[in-house]
């Protein structure tokens, strides 16, 4: 990582607390999830007829689990370039909300540094960062880069491993690997709720969100349902907090 | 073993439409001060988005409800939640989740 441009010297928390290495360490619990989903992703992409260089390029540039599964599937079924890009746009639009929720903790950084942080944002790194933000007013960029880069490299390695070994694995679901993703989301949700003292409101928000996500996905795409559920349920939480 | 032209365009286009929503709020909102209610609203986004993703993973399958495999994931979610609450460990939660599904699929 190069550090050019004007260096803004900011007041820092005690050193070591916010280091790159600690970011790497805080990513470790999510690695098993990344490995299993990335591996499955590599298997699926290879089975869809993508070459190793194509898979590598997709991991490095797109870097988004569900979108890569969708791209592989739609390429295999011969969808148009435009329809694939359009679908992925909607699938990944929720990052808008994640990025917005993280923004108050990176107010001390330049726009360029914020761009670097945002470019590697995923559901998982977001979850870890929000848990880290409990009782803090800002997050360290070094810590965040450690977290992001570890996740990024693991995703890449797991996809390539999946693509290389995919031909010998007929059924990854047999080993329960597809459940790594929901399990990680469960862990991140529980940690997020336990790390702050708004138990009742948080549980109401979570239940609202689940109900809306399921209800809306019966008549539109799942990714739009996630966005709708997030917007409405967060508003419910905000209103409850104001009136109690 | 090389990169096809149409695949290259898909990757480039998809990467671009993913990059913008990822970076734009961080770049713009960190420069401006949000109103009090806006901050409060953003505090509920992590809970809401994770809950929505879990709900879809466990309960929505291709827009359709009901099949035996679906109940396996729903049942496996119980020990997974329990371990998450008891241990507060992301790693243990993922391991127990995967093992639960593996055992349940082996049985049924």
From TrEMBL, chain A:
Gene Ontology CC: one annotated term: plasma membrane
Compartments in which it is found: Cell membrane
Q: What is its main location?
A: membrane
What membrane topology is given?
Answer: Multi-pass membrane protein
Q: Which UniProt keywords apply?
A: Cell membrane, Membrane, Transmembrane, Transmembrane helix, Transport
The organism's superkingdom is given as: Bacteria
What biological process terms from GO does the record include?
A: L-valine transmembrane transport
Which residue ranges run through the membrane? 31-48, 146-169, 175-194
Q: Does the keyword Transport apply?
A: yes
| Pfam short name (any one) | AzlC
Family in the record: Belongs to the AzlC family.
Kindly provide the name given to this protein in its UniProt entry.
Answer: Branched-chain amino acid transporter AzlC
From which organism does this entry originate?
Answer: Paenibacillus selenitireducens
Automatic annotation (TrEMBL), chain B:
Q: Which UniProt keywords apply?
A: Membrane, Transmembrane, Transmembrane helix
Q: Which InterPro entries match?
A: Brnchd-chn_aa_trnsp_AzlD (IPR008407)
The domain of life is Bacteria
Which spans are transmembrane here?
6-29, 41-59, 90-107
Name any one Pfam family assigned in the record: AzlD
Q: What is this protein called?
A: Branched-chain amino acid ABC transporter
Native organism is Paenibacillus selenitireducens
Upper lineage is: Bacteria, Bacillati, Bacillota, Bacilli, Bacillales
């Amino acid at each position: 990582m190069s550090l050019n441009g004007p260096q803004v010297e900011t007041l820092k928390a005690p050193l070591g607390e916010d280091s790159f290495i600690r970011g790497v360490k805080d990513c470790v619990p999510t690695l098993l999830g990344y490995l299993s989903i990335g591996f499955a992703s590599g298997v699926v992409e290879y089975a869809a007829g993508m070459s190793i260089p194509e898979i590598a390029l997709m991991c490095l540039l797109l870097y988004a689990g569900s979108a890569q599964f969708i791209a592989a599937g739609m390429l295999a079924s011969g969808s148009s370039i435009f329809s694939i890009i359009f679908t992925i746009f909607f699938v990944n639009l929720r990052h808008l909300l994640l990025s917005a929720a993280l923004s108050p903790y990176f107010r001390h950084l330049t726009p360029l540094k914020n761009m670097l942080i945002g470019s590697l944002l995923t559901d998982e790194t977001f979850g870890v960062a929000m848990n880290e933000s409990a009782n803090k007013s800002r997050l360290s960029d070094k810590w965040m880069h450690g977290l992001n880069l570890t996740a990024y490299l693991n995703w890449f390695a797991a996809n390539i491993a999946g693509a290389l070994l995919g031909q010998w694995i007929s059924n990854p679901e047999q080993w329960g690997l597809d459940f790594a993703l929901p399990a990680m989301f469960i862990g991140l949700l529980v940690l997020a709720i336990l790390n702050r003292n708004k138990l009742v409101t948080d549980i109401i928000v979570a239940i609202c969100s689940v109900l809306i996500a399921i209800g809306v996905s019966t008549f539109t795409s799942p990714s739009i349902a996630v966005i709708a559920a997030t917007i409405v349920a967060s508003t419910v939480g905000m209103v409850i907090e104001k009136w109690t | 073993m090389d990169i096809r032209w149409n695949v290259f365009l898909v990757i480039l286009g998809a990467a671009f439409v993913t990059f913008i929503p990822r970076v734009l709020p961080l770049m713009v909102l960190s420069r401006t001060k949000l109103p009090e209610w806006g901050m409060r609203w953003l505090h509920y986004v992590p809970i809401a988005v994770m809950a929505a993703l879990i709900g879809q993973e466990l309960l929505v399958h291709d827009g359709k409800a009901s099949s035996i495999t679906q109940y396996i994931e729903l049942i496996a979610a119980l020990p997974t939640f329990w371990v998450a609450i008891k241990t507060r460990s992301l790693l243990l939660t993922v391991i127990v989740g995967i093992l639960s599904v593996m055992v349940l699929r082996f049985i049924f």
